Amino acid sequence: xxxxxxxxxxxxxxxxxxxxxxxxxxxxxxxxxxxxxxxxxxxxxxxxxxxxxxxxxxxxxxxxxxxx
Length: 68
Description:
By secondary structure, the chain is α+β, with helices and mostly antiparallel strands. The protein is built from one helix and four strands. It has a four-stranded antiparallel sheet. A hairpin with a 4-residue loop joins β3 and β4.
């Protein structure tokens, strides 16, 4: 299981989150689901951190490059 913490751009956050909030967390079963979410909302996201509960590691997606 993975926990992804999404930080939205301040000017886009109101489209997704309530009351001036810019950060939210969601649980995912696998990395492909997180990557799909990030790609879908990439223009509104400032950053994404992933916590892997299996090995207690945190990964910042800014450290990776994706290509279609």
